[in-house]
Structure prediction request, 377 residues.
Amino acid sequence: MTTILEINDLKELAQRRVPKMFFDYANSGAWTESTYRANEADFAKIKLRQRVLVDMTDRTLETTMIGQKVSMPVALAPTGLTGMQHADGEILAAQAAEEFGIPFTLSTMSICSIEDVAAATTKPFWFQLYVMRDRDFVLSLIDRAKTAGCSALVLTLDLQILGQRHKDLRNGLSAPPKFTPKHIYQMATRPGWCFGMLGTKRRSFGNIVGHAKGVGDLSSLASWTNEQFDPRLSWKDVAWIREKWGGKLILKGILDKEDAAMAAETGADAIVVSNHGGRQLDGAPSSIAALPGIADVVGDKIEIHLDGGIRSGQDVLKALCLGAQGTYIGRPFLYGLGALGKPGVTKALEIIRNELDITMALCGKRDIKDAGPHLLY
Ligand SMILES: Cc1cc2nc3c(=O)[nH]c(=O)nc-3n(C[C@H](O)[C@H](O)[C@H](O)COP(=O)(O)O)c2cc1C
Prediction:
């Protein structure tokens, strides 16, 4: 059994436990994956200031994201097909986040439905919305999120059309998986995963199948996305959604200063500086490289969050120093989930919390709210 000390250990374990097509779905970016790689690599270039002989007792990582108290400034990012990394994955991740005191964001493209997650948790979670051409369906998703008591809507802006990931096409990714010899082999070599899947009925897109008109089979995710997602999505739609939702709104997928300035005018509560984990525009800058410019333009107008490439507590601290109030992790929690289910998600969060706490202390701070550019070298 591997000793699990860092997120990479969970990644290695997940690769051994999750069928190749689903592990690859998480561990991939668009086209050459240059932006996916840059998300991680650019964090490593940022250096921290080491300080000594300052009182390091009584430290706290507690802060707020959109006014909600969080035990550390890290939320679980919305990720599609999470219930394919591990049976009932969204439910398990939401429970782990709730116990940890951080937000869980449920994707529109989840396997467990909004109602499934609401029934299995006791505190509000966040719901991520993709805007489909069928506006009645969009309204019904918003209503279902309200009924479930979701405390924020995360509106994703950077997936009007789908970026291409070579691995998914080569693997013939689908949910539920097809039963070709290749796919049967991939699953048969992961018996623990299969056993879990046999014990759940949640194997397709829980928010969509049986809810959206004429959708019974989503086996080709790419073609369904291309047919259903609205390529005409505009700032006017953001205003419409804000009005229909009426609660806390987070705009996800901002990478450009001009877009950030427009987002700040919408009345939304926060933006997420994000390139979708390098899964959309390959060749775009890393999120952490885009953050300082965006913080310069809108830092005093709207709360800024960041995701993309965070693999450690050091990365979280660097993002806070450069202007983010909160961060999200995608792959780190998916690796934990694929490796060990709910305890794996908790483990990923514990690793990041421990690294963040020690890093903050060695930079001479005791309260995470004091993070700022003065901690960078
Ligand atoms: C497997 C996977 C599925 C994703 N699905 C969604 C999704 O359904 N909706 C969304 O807004 N973002 C989605 N994202 C993007 C994440 O919300 C987030 O932006 C990204 O994972 C952050 O980068 P990181 O994985 O390096 O932490 C997905 C990312 C991954 C890795």
In short: The radius of gyration is 20 Å. The beta strands are 63-65, 68-70, 74-76, 105-106, 126-129, 152-156, 249-254, 270-273, 303-307, 326-329. The CA atoms of residues 11 and 335 lie 5 Å apart. The chain is about 45% helix and 10% strand.
